[in-house]
Structures are given as structure tokens and as C-alpha cells.
Design goal:
alpha/beta; Rossmann fold; Recoverin, domain 1; 2 domains; two-stranded antiparallel sheet; 38% helix; 19% strand; disordered N terminus
């Protein structure tokens, strides 16, 4: 009770500052650096209002899986989608800073600004513990910066970053609000199997099986995009299991029917349940075995062997805001619901929820790929599109409301 009253008193003071018209005008940015416990230099960008003296409330952004630069920029040219380079964290940081926040976003270990000098092996040889310690040091750098007030202090973790943020918040009483976007609840090995198998099967059943007979033909897949469905990430990721390939006279790799190991009876059709599903599960099992025994490196081993976030969430004392796109099929909406159920089972009610009913994993409109007629084929987005202004505004308003709770 006393902690909540203290936050409310502090919140009132900085809400008055945030109401100043000058803060909406512009943003200044500077590079902030720190050294990890294994002596790696990490560079971050700190953004803050340019037309007010500060100091300002602080926010740390922690990215999801992958070799992300500070902006979380990504371009995926293999997908037939309306896209281009996307900058999720740059968009959030600059918007929040225009509204009175000092926001820090960092290159992930091994990554560089604009990916100009990336060293992927550094991340591949890191563990979840390393990433959590990196986030702790980033928070120390943010907390100690002269542009940042001691409180309130907010940590935002997206996707894999929600695991890191949850671990960080368990041991850091300075955090006033933990924001988990696209969060994970189950063990990572279970989530990976879902991503490698179950969502692909859902797509094949719902979008590709045109006549609903439980089988796929090459003609049905071709109806999706005129390219055997390869414009979809779900077909593309399963291509080795689905198709047999050959070299054309021009030297291109082209589809030459279905994979004969999957199409065991050679009838030119793949039964989704009896033929495709067992093949996908075998591949997923092989991948997870290699991840667990260290064959894929320390990163994957630490990821699949860690506790489920749902089993840890009650150890976080601070207030939590769950932010999720209801159409997310990377970390489905069941994930934050499981975390909330865990909190409720422990008598915890100091959490809040912000669900967006029409958005996907990165709080963007779904855009996996489109048919030639422009119709949406499956409801999710697999690029890191920057959230639209309304979404950013709603998110910031909910963060501020939780700090005033």
C-alpha cells in the first residue's frame, strides 16, 4: 500500500511536467555505452525531449529474439508482403520521448547500429543469463544518466525480451512498472514446437486446403500465390518436408512434385494429419534435441532448458502490464492469459491488460502475405512493423495510468 501511494505521489509530479506543450516538439538522441561482464562493448541510444531541461522518467526497451540493433530494424525480402525496413523500437522510443520520457534502446550483444558490423557468433554463444545481465547493466546506465530521474522507471520487454525483463524485474526493486509485449508463458521448447509445427498445420488446414478434404495438392498450394504457396512463411519454412526440388535448364531450383518421403504412397497428395504432421514433428524433435544437448550452441541450450515464465511471474513484486495482439500466432494470446492465471492463483491482482483485437505479434496489422486478389490469408504479422500512432498513444496512456495506480 505504501509503495502504491509513493508511486502515485511521484506520478502526480511528473504528470504535470508531461503536460507541458514544449515536450511534444522534438527529440534529442545520444549514444550511451557500457561494457558487459565478459568485456563486450554495448552501444545504446538514449532519446529524450529536446526542448525541456529534464530530468525525465526513464524507460528501457528490451528486444525479442534475433540479432537486433537498437532500432529493431528488419527487412524480410523473401516474403511477398507490403513492407520495407521496419523500426519498432525507434518508433516507440521517439514517440515516448516526444511525450516526456527518456527512453533507452540498445544493440543486442553481437549487433551493431544498422547491422553494419554485426558479429552473430557473439549472440550464438551467449546464454539467457548473459542477456539478462546485459539488460541489468543497461538499466544501470539508464538509471544513472543525468537526464533520467530516479523514479518512475519502466522496463518494456518484447517477445524473448519478455523473458529477460521478467528475470530482471525479480531482482530489481527500482523498476516501477514491467511491460510485457507479445509475452511468453510456456517453456521455450514447447513454444518452439508450436511455432515449427502447430501454427504451420493450422495454416495448411485453414488457408491451403481449398476443398477441405484434409489433403494438399500442388494445385491447391499454387492457388495461394501462383508460386506453390512459397510466398507464405508457413509453406516456405516447411518446404523441405513438402517438396522435391530439381535444377531447371536455366540453373534455377524449382519444385518437382512432393517430397517422396512425406508422400510415402506416391499418390501426389499430402494428407495433412497422417503425412505432413508426423514429418514436421520429427524435424521439430530433432531440432529441440540438438538445442537441449548444446549442439546448436549455448544460446539455444539455455533457452530451451529454462523455467517457464509462467512459473516465475509471481516472483515479480512490481506492477505488470501485459500488452498483446489478439491475432498473434507467434506467442498466442493464451500466453499472457496463463501468466495472469498464475498471478491470480497466488492472490496477485497488481497487473493490467492491454489487448489489441486486430493486431499481431509486433502490434501491427496482420500481413503475413496476401493472395493475388489482395485477400488476407492468415491473421498474423511476421515483420516488425512500427506501431501506428494510435497504438503508441494507447500504450503510453496505459503505462502512465498504471504508474498512477
Amino acid at each position: 500500500m505504501s509503495r502504491c501511494l509513493a508511486i502515485s505521489a511521484r506520478a502526480l509530479a511528473w504528470f504535470l511536467v508531461l503536460s507541458s506543450p514544449a515536450l511534444a516538439a522534438g527529440v534529442s538522441e545520444e549514444v550511451v555505452s557500457f561494457t558487459t561482464r565478459d568485456n563486450l562493448p554495448i552501444q545504446c541510444i538514449l532519446s529524450y525531449p529536446s526542448e525541456a531541461p529534464g530530468p525525465f522518467p526513464g524507460m528501457l526497451l528490451i528486444p525479442g529474439s534475433g540479432l537486433h540493433d537498437a532500432d529493431v530494424s528488419l527487412d524480410v525480402p523473401i516474403l511477398e508482403i507490403t513492407q520495407g525496413p521496419q523500426f519498432l523500437f525507434r518508433s516507440l522510443a521517439r514517440y515516448f520521448s516526444r511525450h516526456g520520457w527518456a527512453v533507452q534502446r540498445c544493440n543486442k550483444r553481437g549487433a551493431s547500429f544498422d547491422h553494419a558490423e554485426d558479429r552473430p557468433a557473439i549472440l550464438e554463444n551467449a546464454t539467457l543469463e548473459d542477456l539478462t545481465e546485459d539488460a541489468r547493466l543497461a538499466l544501470v546506465a539508464l538509471h544513472g544518466h543525468p537526464r533520467v530521474v530516479a523514479s518512475p522507471l519502466v522496463v518494456v520487454g518484447h517477445s524473448e525480451g519478455s523473458l529477460v525483463a521478467t528475470r530482471l524485474a525479480q531482482s530489481n526493486p527500482d523498476i516501477d512498472l514491467l511491460v510485457l509485449m507479445g509475452s511468453v508463458a510456456r517453456r521455450m521448447d514447447a513454444l518452439i514446437e508450436y511455432q515449427l509445427v502447430d501454427r504451420n498445420l493450422d495454416f495448411l488446414r485453414q488457408a491451403a486446403d481449398a476443398n477441405g478434404d484434409g489433403n494438399l495438392t500442388l494445385d491447391e498450394l499454387n492457388l495461394l500465390d501462383g508460386n506453390s504457396g512459397l510466398g507464405s512463411v508457413y509453406v516456405f519454412n516447411s518446404a523441405g518436408i513438402l517438396f522435391r526440388f530439381k535444377q531447371s535448364e536455366g540453373g534455377d531450383t524449382v519444385i518437382d512434385g512432393f517430397n517422396t518421403q512425406t508422400d510415402a504412397n506416391g499418390n501426389g497428395r499430402l494428407h495433412i494429419t497422417r503425412e505432413i504432421e508426423p514429418a514436421l514433428r520429427r524435424e521439430a524433435s530433432r531440432f529441440l534435441e540438438m538445442a537441449a544437448d548444446g549442439s546448436l550452441g549455448p544460446y539455444w541450450r539455455s533457452l530451451v532448458n529454462t523455467e517457464s515464465p509462467a512459473s516465475q511471474i509471481h516472483r515479480v513484486d512490481t506492477r505488470i502490464l501485459f500488452v498483446h495482439g489478439a491475432l498473434d500466432v507467434q506467442t498466442p494470446v493464451d500466453e499472457p492469459l496463463a501468466m495472469m492465471a498464475r498471478l491470480e492463483s497466488r492472490g496477485r491482482t497488481n497487473y493490467d491488460v492491454l489487448f489489441f483485437p486486430t493486431l499481431g505479434h509486433s502490434l501491427s496489422p496482420p500481413n503475413d502475405f496476401y493472395r493475388r486478389d489482395g485477400g488476407l490469408t492468415i491473421l498474423d504479422n511476421l515483420t516488425l512493423n512500427a506501431p501506428r500512432a494510435k497504438i503508441r498513444r494507447l500504450l503510453l496512456e496505459r503505462i502512465e495510468a498504471n504508474l498512477a495506480h
